[in-house]
Amino acid sequence: MKSKIKITIRIILAFLFLLFFTLTGVTAYFFLADIESRPTEEAKEQIEIIEKSYQDRKVFFLTPKETTDSNTVIFYLHGGSYIAEASKEHWSFLADLVEDTKAKVILPDYPLAPKYHYKEVFAMIQPLYEEIVATEKAENFIIMGDSAGGGMALALCEKLGEEGKQKPNQLLLISPWLDVKLENIKIDEVEKQDKQLHREALKIAGIAYAGKDGMESYLVNPILGNPNTLQDIKIIIFTGTYDILNPDVHRWIELVGEKVQIELKEYEGAPHIWLLDRSKDRTNEAEDAYQELLACIK
User: Fold this and answer.
1) H-helix or E-strand containing 285?
2) SS3 content of the chain, % helix, strand, coil (to 5)
3) Which of 21, 36, 107, 217 is deepest in the core (most CB within 10 A)?
4) What's the pTM value of the predicted model, to 2 decimals?
5) Domain boundaries, the chain
6) Looking at residue 278, what is its pLDDT?
């Protein structure tokens, strides 16, 4: 709950920043400190976490405590409405994921809006991904992301395909945010059931991430991307019907048709990124979805 409140506050601050920028033409960048992800103590006790520097940003390498012969590497892009760092729930989820799959997870601490925009984000994550692919030589390479990170992960794969670069074996998306405009009329009905996300607040965060020229770019709205760039990637999407981002998942699947190999795993009544938080007060559906996710990786 604390992480959701923090994200809402960040969205309000992003709006105030954009308003200030519009009215005065003076940037407040120098007053906005870089926000950085920090692993929790619980995660550090559960798995090995090595922090490295890349383009003056952090990159975290997560591996099991014990030696493993797993050949799976997961390049993970966390959510947070493009304006928040990896949360406590992310670290708990990723620690469990590493422990249960024995895979290596690489988590970039990418630059955040409103101080940075999508161009700065992709200027970091794409070359980092390409270096990792060249050095890891994993037989099973996965790009994975949740929410805003899910949209970013899809956009990265579209860009790699467009440029003829090496793509991952799998793309795993959890409650992905595919269109920051949120104009799908089917959202109106789902919004009545979504107790976590606020449509207008998310739009503000999307504007901050897009900057001056990004709103029509598939890097911001991957729903606009060319489906032909995604051939030869197995795409698996986890989504819940009580998530306002769910309708655009269905819209994207309709748009790409049979050009893309997509497996949809939809949970009735599940909220946004429900499987990242499998705390005791949740239903067994979160654990069921998590186990299904593990089966996709192993």
Assistant:
1) helix 284-297
2) 45, 15, 40
3) 107
4) 0.90
5) 2-297
6) 86
- pLDDT confidence of residue 35: 85
Residue 39 to residue 61: CA distance in whole angstroms: 11
User: Please, what is the Cα angle at 157 between 111 and 239, to 5 degrees?
Assistant: 85
Q: Rounded CA gap, 107 and 24, in Å?
A: 37
Taking only the tens place, the pLDDT of each residue in 244-259 is: 999 999 999 999 999 9
Q: Provide the 3-class DSSP secondary structure of residue 218.
A: coil
Band (pLDDT 50/70/90 cuts) for residue 28 is very low
**Structure tokens given for 1:** 């709950």
CATH 3.90.180.10 fits 2-297, yes or no: no
Residue with tokens 């955040």: 112
- 226 vs 137, which has greater pLDDT? 226
131 CB-near residues (< 8 Å, 6+ apart): none
Q: List the 104-108 sheet strands across, edge first.
A: 48-54, 57-63, 104-108, 72-77, 140-146, 170-174, 234-240, 262-267
